[in-house]
Specification:
The complex is a heterodimer. By secondary structure, chain A is of the alpha/beta class. Chain A contains five helices and six strands. Chain A has a six-stranded mixed sheet with strand order 2-3-1-4-5-6, with helices on both faces.
Chain lengths: 165, 480
């Protein structure tokens, strides 16, 4: 059994916990509950013919109240950067966390999830911002933890990229 | 080792024994007392006689003398109740010696230490702290286990912490650096959550430190009330921060909207002022004056419609707090509301040469009571009819379908206009959306419809009509 650690990184209230819960337990709650510290959930997948256990490290949102510790990233095979499409500033935070993760993990696979696709009419993140990141080689997924849209596909893509190395 | 000279042996004994009471017996090869001395009475052995066995008097020795060959110690035995004695046994010539040393003070001291240890352990358990010591790379539980540790780790004295807590597996790397004094003297893990078999989530935090005596200690604590307090404060701070951001964005949008509204209201006003001025300042034939009055009236109606949309949208949230009916007896009738909305717009449709048809399904029951409020239900329908009229070509037809559905009843307004361009479909029902004519004259009409219908537990949506046109539908639950 292959074990792979994935860290969820992003600002607060972007939906990291909701995405993990949607992916692992297929549930969603509208109630916002801020995360303190770390919650780890597991999910088993078949990736490229191999049994893989994903260890999903749902880290607290990074802001002036709580900073993500470098030690939390130790041993991660990949990470998911999560931004909230309705808050453009969360995309800036994601760029900052990408630098932080890169400096501690080196060149490991990552994806950017722009969450809250179900509120796309209220999005502040626009195509131009996404294009800029795509030009840097970022793989971007639009997700909705509420409806489940794009969630499975995003985790699955990261799992495949991690297993392929 | 060669024996010490007698004088030095005496000095050593005096230093080691101090003022403690001491006695001895020397046994021959048959285990019988050959010599005796010291304060035997203190140990209750004053009647031990020469030439007699001694092991019958000392229970732990029974049967082991005279075969005992190696030196040994019987620690903390009580030959006299309340007096602790260490009995040192060793070979002596063909026989053996027994040295009786009073250790009552040391035993009392140890007992007090043990008691303090128990109290400390009890206190740690009460505080929700489980303590582990790293011995040769293995973590052993010390003292009593708090409830969380029993729930998550069971009663194994050497639980596999890394297996139970993947988070700790990671932190133990930092802990070991601390224990080897390669890191800070104390390392904190930060909080993490763990769920027990009953689905209860515990909030834990670990601390690693190396004690002055070199022992490597890992303390894991359940945060409980401290976590709740911290969570409450952080939740409040973040919720307020989100509210602040939301308000800021709302204000930005409202400023933009205000700009649009002023611009849109100004347009018809210009036409009205122009028409009136012409009528007032020039001598016009009656036909031309009538045309200008019609133009001014049309613009006034347009402006009124815009103002109504704005008021609808701004009052929707306030009205959401107001009462609406879900009981059949008082709930609005959907077909009756449709009929009144059609009557309101029938004249306008005729003037614009657009047909307006109601297509009620034969499956509809006689009474179509839905959750909602009658006047706002009519306004939702009017909004959809007004949009349809605005985009309909001359001689086009707008059809209103009413039918039962799983949720209750469904209304569809279908026009023969150009339909909603694909790029405008997202956010069509959003607040302050500027999606051409579809958001209503002030960009708020469909937002009002959505917020109202959803407030009543219904849903609303758009789909393109085949081969051309737009279908706006909404569903409302049946009132029970």
């Amino acid at each position: 059994m292959i074990r792979k650690k994935i860290c969820m990184l992003g600002s607060y209230a972007v939906g990291k916990t909701s995405l993990v819960q949607r992916f692992v337990e297929d549930v969603f709650s509208d109630r916002y509950e801020t995360t303190i510290g770390v919650r780890i959930l597991k999910k088993q997948l078949q990736v490229e013919g191999a049994d893989v256990t994903l260890m999903l490290w749902d880290l607290h949102g990074d802001d002036e109240f709580q900073r993500v510790r470098p030690s939390y990233l130790r041993g991660a095979s990949g990470y998911l950067l999560v931004a909230d499409g309705t808050r453009a500033d969360t995309l800036e935070k994601v760029a900052e966390l990408h630098d932080f993760a890169g400096s501690h993990l080196g060149d490991v696979p990552f994806l950017l999830l722009i969450n809250k696709r179900d509120l796309e009419g209220e999005w502040e993140v626009d195509g131009e911002m996404e294009e800029r990141l795509k030009r840097l080689g970022w793989s971007i997924h639009h997700t909705s933890a509420r409806s489940g849209d794009g969630v499975e596909a995003a985790f699955s893509e990261l799992a495949h990229r991690m297993v392929r190395g | 080792m060669d024996p010490f000279p007698e004088s030095i042996a005496h000095e050593l004994l005096a230093n080691l024994v101090g003022d403690a009471r001491v006695a001895y017996v020397i046994l021959d090869d048959a285990g019988l007392v050959r010599e005796r001395g010291g304060e035997l009475a203190w140990f209750g052995l004053e009647d031990v006689a020469l030439g007699e066995p001694v092991d019958e008097r000392i229970e732990p020795l029974q049967g082991s003398l005279p075969t005992i060959g190696e030196s040994d110690v019987l620690p903390r035995i009580e030959l006299v109740p309340g007096r602790a004695t260490d009995v040192h046994i060793g070979a002596h010539g063909d026989g053996a010696f027994l040295l009786f040393l009073d250790v009552t003070r040391e035993a009392d001291h140890d007992r007090r230490l043990q008691q303090k240890g128990n109290e400390l352990s009890l206190m740690m358990r009460t505080l929700g702290v489980a303590v582990f010591e790293d011995v040769g790379g293995e973590l052993r539980r010390l003292g009593l286990s708090p409830s969380w540790a029993r729930a998550l780790l069971g009663t194994d004295p050497r639980p596999d912490l890394a297996e139970s807590f993947p988070f700790l597996e990671n932190f133990l790397i930092d802990a070991r650096a601390t224990w080897e004094l390669r890191g800070p003297r104390i390392a904190w893990s930060g909080p993490w959550m763990a769920e027990d078999g009953r689905g209860r989530e515990w909030q834990l935090e670990a601390t690693a430190t190396r004690l002055e005596d070199g022992r490597k200690i890992l303390a894991v604590q359940s945060l409980e009330h401290r976590y709740e307090e911290r969570h409450r404060l952080l939740q409040m701070a973040r919720t307020r921060s989100l509210d602040f951001d939301r308000l800021r964005r709302e204000i930005d949008k409202k400023e933009a909207l205000l700009h649009y509204i002023i611009h849109d209201l100004k347009g018809p006003l210009g036409t009205m002022v122009g028409s009136m001025s012409l009528i007032k300042d020039r001598e016009l034939d009656p036909e031309r004056a009538r045309e200008l009055l019609e133009l001014g009236l049309e613009q006034a109606r347009h402006q009124e419609s815009m103002i109504r949309s704005i008021l609808d949208a701004f009052s929707a949230e306030i009205e959401s707090l107001q009462h609406f009916e879900s009981e059949e007896a008082r709930a609005p009738d959907l077909l009756s509301a449709v009929s009144r909305a059609l009557d309101t717009y029938r004249l306008a449709y005729e003037q614009n040469r657009v047909g307006l048809e109601l297509r009620a399904s034969p499956d509809l029951p006689q009474s179509c009571k839905v959750v909602g409020e009658d006047s706002r239900l009519v306004r939702v329908l009017c909004n959809l009819l007004e949009n349809a009229l605005r985009v309909s070509p001359e001689s086009g037809v707008v059809e209103v379908f009413a039918e039962p559905c799983d949720a209750g009843f469904r209304i569809t307004v279908r026009d023969q206009g150009p339909g909603v361009p694909e790029q405008d479909r997202e956010g069509l029902f959003a607040r302050f959306a500027r999606t051409g004519v579809w958001g209503g004259t002030a960009g708020l009409g469909l937002y009002f419809c959505r917020s109202t219908v959803e407030m009543w537990g219904g849903s609303i949506g758009y789909q393109p009509a085949d081969p051309q046109g737009a279908c706006f539908w909404f569903e409302l639950p049946r009132a029970l």
